[in-house]
Amino acid sequence: MTKRSKIPSPTIERLALYSRPLQSFVESDTPIVSSEKLAELCGVNPAQVRKDLAYFGEFGVRGVGYDAQELLREIKRILGTDREWTICIVGMGNLGMSLVENDNFRKRGYRFVAAFDLDSRKAGRRLPCGLAIQPACNIPEQVRGLGVDLGIITTPSREAQRAAELLFKANIKGILNFSATQVRAPECCIIENVDLSVKLENLVYHLETLYKGMPMK
Amino acid sequence: MTKRSKIPSPTIERLALYSRPLQSFVESDTPIVSSEKLAELCGVNPAQVRKDLAYFGEFGVRGVGYDAQELLREIKRILGTDREWTICIVGMGNLGMSLVENDNFRKRGYRFVAAFDLDSRKAGRRLPCGLAIQPACNIPEQVRGLGVDLGIITTPSREAQRAAELLFKANIKGILNFSATQVRAPECCIIENVDLSVKLENLVYHLETLYKGMPMK
DNA sequence: TCGAAATTGTGAAATAATGCACATGATTTG
DNA sequence: CAAATCATGTGCATTATTTCACAATTTCGA
Known about the structure:
Two copies of one chain form a homodimer.
Chain A: H1 9-27, E1 32-33, H2 35-42, H3 46-54, E2 60-61, E3 65-67, H4 68-79, E4 85-90, H5 94-101, H6 103-107, E5 110-117, E6 133-135, H7 139-146, E7 150-153, H8 157-169, E8 174-177, E9 190-193, H9 196-211
Parallel strand pairs in A: 4-5, 4-7, 5-6, 7-8, 8-9
Antiparallel strand pairs in A: 1-3, 2-3
Helix pairs in contact in A: 1-2, 1-4, 2-3
Chain B binds a DNA duplex (30 and 30 nucleotides) through residues 6, 8, 10-11, 34-36, 45-48, 50-51, 53-54, 58-66.
């Protein structure tokens, strides 16, 4: 299940976070940025920024700061986002449809190359992006054939595991799962779960405790 | 013994996670559930489940397990999801539209009561759920008037802060921010950020290191 | 050229979170 | 009714993560 790594996983999450303001700095021709500035914009501690980067090398200049463009390039190289990744998506409900059209993904180098739905009546419908919805039974063949890198699951919970199995069959290596169920996966496939209502529940808990005057994190 | 003073925030996140399978158990008339079973379904350690619950009380029976229905009720009470929460959403692009229609939210007791867009040309358009899109300038008055609990931001990054300011003006207490920028907020408003491409980047990093034969989590 | 200011990189301390292991209490079985 | 079994609750050791604090390095101005 879990092997050893010396890189804390919160560090990876934050590297992605840092890249947002860095992109802005590059676009606005701000050549140099300090760990303090970056930390402020990302809501973290400056020492944290430096330590996160230190896991991978020395990218800054003491007394000066970091070259925004260079640091951004390094972070992209570290994360693996310096190349295009292809994605297929299973479950073309409202959420699925919106993700396929999502500009942020495209801008960051992700490209949707196939869209599936378990309900074969949706098959054939053409999406604004040009893709046509395919029946889920096509997944193994299509995904293998296209050499798709990542899968996104946006089916209802009860169908998530079935969608996942089809993706495993296609030998996919990573899945972003938006359904509310945990998917059981073989060793060779990495699953990242994003349960949107969990996020809302977090918010609600904090508001509740705040209102009740209880101490909170 | 209920000691609410120092609740780890991962615990809160997991409580929400536990409620999913618990709901299924209740629906399928499975009255008793063990920490081991629950842990397995959520991909965590059984001791973790017990410890998480122990922060809030003793809900199980030694040698037996937990009453699914009762535990679910308790978790909902703890999280504050035992009542309806009203939501307004700002940014009616693809993502915003899909969230408004999202069934999961409705099932969990969240209700959208207003939808806004900064582009006033979208105003007046009626959504499938019955709401009509309003211009963002209406936020302060409308949100206050309706006593909305939570805000969701689904605008492009560059407009996120502006959307947030309008929500602050309406005295909103919590915001779920889907844009790729960190929003600066006053003390009195809690922000939860959900950057979807950060999730993808995590996945990509793990795949990269896997491919390169590097040790990983 | 020197000293002050700025800012990184990092060892070590502090804090936080997890998981083990076992005492405890419930239930079942022979 | 005793023994075996099961599963919770929890003290404590372990592991993970964050933050501090300061030496090292660069820049700038007098």
